[in-house]
Amino acid sequence: MDDLNEKTWYSGDWNTGKDNNTPPYNGIKITAKANYNVPVDESSTQSLTSVDLEIADYTYDINGVSSYVSLSEANTWYTIPIPENTNVSPSEPNSNFTITGIDTTKLGNVELNSNVAGLFVNIEFKYGAENEKREELGFIMKIEETYIEGTDAIIVNGE
Q: Where would I find the beta strands (DSSP E) of 37-145?
């Protein structure tokens, strides 16, 4: 995969290089992959078609529990689905995935926000151990609407 089109954002409580020995093992990791249309010829511009997100929660699972969202429409909030725990039969929502909405909603949200400054991944959710919920709000990545070969398609805030 072209790493210029894929970047990762980490929550503020992320421990780089070492997980905790007990829960919470770590924070949240969001990996974004920008998808562009296939150019008609070498001189044509590649336009953004979608952004695929992997949202991994490391609160109760040292290997992370991932949910996937594909953002294809700007200025539309997408819910972050709770992944299934397939280790039980019948499968059920994975209780190790702690991401929820910030108010009375059950699910967290993510959007591809388009404004005068550009196109951004915007997040809105809470996560973590029940007695230590953290809130994450705001723009975490800027996504280029057109792609030029060899340039960064995604810029992570804070890098």
A: 46-57, 65-71, 77-79, 84-85, 92-93, 109-115, 118-127, 134-143
Structure confidence at residue 38 (pLDDT): 80
Residue 66 to residues 31, 83, 96, Cα–Cα distance (Å): 10, 7, 10
Residue 41 CB contacts under 8 Å (≥ 6 apart), including other chains? none
Domain extents in the chain: 6-156
Residue 85's φ and ψ, nearest 5 degrees, are -90, 105
- CB 109 within 8 Å of CB 80: yes
Beta bridge partners of 8: 31
Nearest in space to 77 (alpha carbons), one of 117, 124, 34, 36: 124
Q: Per-residue pLDDT tens for 114-136?
A: 999 999 999 999 999 988 889 99
- Whole-prediction pTM: 0.91
Q: What are phi and psi of 134, to 5 degrees?
A: -115, 145
Residue type, 93: P
